[in-house]
Write a structure and sequence with these properties.
The structure holds 2 protein chains of 2 kinds. Chain A is mainly α. Chain A has 14 helices and 4 strands. Helix content of chain A is about 70%, strand content about 5%. In chain A, the strands form 2 sheets. In chain A, strands 1-4 form a two-stranded antiparallel ribbon. In chain A, a hairpin with a 5-residue loop joins strand 2 and strand 3. In chain A, helix 4 packs antiparallel against helix 5. The longest helix of chain A is centred in the last third of the chain and has 27 residues. Chain B is mainly alpha-helical. The two termini of chain B are about 30 Å apart. The chains are: A mainly alpha, B mainly alpha. The interface between A and B is large, with 47 and 54 residues.
Chain lengths: ~325, ~325
């Protein structure tokens, strides 16, 4: 087996063991109902995490995604409930706005030559503040089309439901995996994360790729915002606070290397499912308080970062110099 | 030497602070009025200093971290943990000094842990400190058992709301910490070593600097500052709120340091200017509240400020004005 596949395999094995242990303790967790809810409840996080995977593979970070989700929800609610725009048109508008937003961040990162961290921090403030300036209250969305979309689902044997948003997340992961591993854009992203100087010497269009990466991340965050508004039927400026941290955690747990240049979109899927499992387990247990979620996620994060270091230090000495960090 | 001195007098940070204060004065004519009451000073300016103190304290520790080309995302969570430790110990009947020292010790330990991850395990700082940022709040809630622990201990409350020579205690603590740290980095070689690590860690190590030890200490200082800020905030509201204490303050602290002219690419840094940066942020906060805008409006202003700083610090601007272009280019490569 290739050494570089080990983080991914480790995540998958840990997920399976954790799931098996949970099922032994609570046999009901094996039902299709729980599995279906797994997908539905984590749909917005999963879609965000796909975009984050691309950003992290390219060696950057995007702190603005949670704020973009909040802003999208508010913009959708305003467009649909206050201005009477049809949801489909509203979806198109918010995706276009997000594309512009992400493109601007990517351009700033490339042309101003500043760390992605500080640019997306400004983006986070801008999106969260912008949403709060539009409205400070939760705006409900009551549209027949929303009812239709949330009503779409495939019923599974055993009472489980594969909802529209759950399926959408799976579709985004499949498209994301194809984009990362089978297209020119995908290889550019890996090249950038490996070493941006040699990438540009090899003829990778660094400026265009950087803009596209952050555009993709913001578009997917907006899509997650749409999913979130379907999930809650409302737009709220403080929605999805801290989702960027969950998304980054899911990406890291999924085996993507934080120094860039290496990672799997499907690993992120396992990461998201593992986070979902932690939450579901805590709900099933009933006696554990919700703050254990944070502690467990923190411990998992730590374990995976150390695991990555050990594997990569052993397999490729000197390939990733720590001074780069 | 003389040129340096002139630059220091007319530095953009102090001018910006004066500018923001003047705008506040235009919006609110009584802004500069200070009165003496019950043995302490009162007034909007004093309020800015008092409210800005926690971020200023965080910024003091953060400056060192950013000067080594790192970042510490966990300070907000460490604040929550240390506030929780101090509050629960006081409530449990421990003497106040013991509780405060324990809280400071916990903060120092959290910082050293970050330093260990960054220096020994060679993990990227942003990720290494992310671990505590995520887990820290959970740990704080574990300590307070999910509730807001309130206390009535007069000594502890004095740290948050008392006054010394008429100045709010929080501001005095920030000032003392600032002077101590500035002396430490400017009167000894430590500042130079920190700068050397930020510019090029490998070269610094080859030049004989114990970069590993120094990095651990820098993160330790950041954790210690976070502990001080956590105790001040908890003492101010007379309770430890694990969910909201220090929430997003790490971002304010980073912003304060960046406003203070410390480069995110490592190297050049200034502790006093970072404190001025924290005061600028707080003065804007107060101005927005005074002029009747919703507090969320602040975020938009902060975003605009970051964009402005990025434009000023960018190599593009350097080329336009023909200064520092070579330096910034070399740093970004």
């Amino acid at each position: 087996m290739k050494r570089s596949l080990q983080p991914l395999v480790a995540t998958a094995v840990i997920f399976l063991i954790a799931y098996a242990v949970s099922v032994l303790q609570f046999p009901n967790m094996l039902s299709t109902r729980v599995l279906g809810n797994f997908l539905t409840d984590n749909a917005f996080l999963g879609i965000t995490a796909v975009g984050m995977t691309f950003v992290i593979i390219s060696g950057g970070i995007d702190l603005s995604v949670g704020a973009v989700i909040g802003f999208t929800g508010v913009l959708l609610a305003v467009l649909i409930s206050w201005l009477g725009v049809h949801p489909l048109l509203a979806f198109a508008i918010v995706l276009a706005v997000a594309a512009l937003f992400g493109g601007a961040m990517g351009a700033a990162i490339h042309y101003l030559q500043v760390p992605s961290f500080i640019v997306t921090l400004a983006g986070m403030f801008l999106a969260r503040g912008g949403a709060s300036v539009i409205t400070q209250d939760s705006v409900p969305i009551n549209h027949d089309f929303y009812g239709t979309l949330t009503g779409l689902m495939i019923r599974l044997p055993g009472g489980g439901r594969l909802s529209f948003i759950g399926l959408l997340m799976i579709a985004v992961f499949l498209v994301g995996a194809l984009l990362a591993h089978r297209t020119k854009f995908g290889s550019y992203v890996y090249a950038l994360g490996g070493n941006s100087v040699s990438a540009s010497l090899m003829g990778v269009p660094v400026a265009r790729t950087t803009v596209q990466i952050y555009m993709l991340s913001s578009i997917l965050a907006a899509l997650a915002g749409i999913v979130y508004s379907l999930y809650t039927s409302a737009g709220y400026p403080l929605a999805a606070v801290g989702v960027e941290l969950d998304a980054i955690s899911a990406v890291v747990i999924g085996g993507t290397l934080l120094t860039g240049g290496y990672g799997f979109v499907l690993g992120t899927f396992v990461g998201v499912m593992l986070l979902g499992l932690v939450q579901t387990y805590i709900i099933f247990d009933g006696t554990l308080s919700s703050w254990w979620t944070k502690i467990v996620i923190g411990v998992l994060l730590f374990l995976f970062i150390v695991l990555q270091r050990i594997i990569f230090a052993a397999s490729a000495p000197g390939e990733k110099s720590p001074e780069k960090a | 030497m003389k040129r340096l001195h002139l630059e220091r007098l007319a530095n953009p940070q102090l001018l910006a602070l004066v500018g923001v204060l003047l705008i506040n004065w235009l919006l609110f004519p009584n802004f500069f009025r200070i009165s003496w009451q019950d043995g302490r000073l009162f007034g909007s300016v004093i309020d800015v200093i008092n409210r800005g103190a926690p971020v200023a304290i965080l910024a003091i520790g953060m400056t060192g971290v950013i000067a080594t080309k790192g970042v510490d995302l966990s300070v907000g969570a460490i604040m929550a943990v240390c506030g929780a430790v101090a509050a629960t110990m006081v409530v449990a009947g421990y003497p106040t000094p013991v509780a405060v020292i324990a809280a400071l010790g916990v903060g120092l330990a959290c910082g050293l842990w970050n330093g260990f991850l960054v220096a020994v395990l060679d993990i990227q700082p942003i990720i290494a400190t992310l671990v505590l940022m995520v887990a820290g709040r959970g740990i704080a809630q574990l300590i307070t058992e999910g509730s807001i622990v309130t206390f009535n201990d007069p000594t502890l409350i004095f740290i948050g709301t008392g006054s010394f020579l008429g100045l709010p205690m929080a501001a005095v603590i920030a000032l003392v910490l600032m002077i101590l740290v500035t002396l430490l980095v400017r009167r000894t070689a430590i500042g130079l070593f920190v700068q050397a690590i930020g510019v090029n860690r490998a070269a610094a190590s080859l030049a004989g600097i114990h970069s590993r030890m120094l990095l651990i200490l820098v993160y330790g200082l950041s954790g210690f500052c976070a502990a001080v800020a956590g105790i001040v905030v908890a003492a101010d509201i007379r309770g430890a709120d694990a969910n909201n204490s220090g929430l997003w303050l790490e971002l304010d602290a980073i912003l304060a340091v960046v406003i203070g002219g410390t480069s995110l690419l490592g190297g050049k840094f200034s502790v006093p200017l970072a404190v001025v940066g924290a005061l600028i942020i707080q003065a804007m906060n107060t101005g927005i509240l005074v002029s009747g805008f919703p507090p969320e409006f602040n975020l938009v202003v902060k975003a605009g400020m970051i964009i402005l700083i990025l434009l000023i610090q960018s190599p593009l601007a350097g080329q336009l004005f023909g200064r520092r272009a070579i330096v910034t280019k070399a740093a970004s490569k």
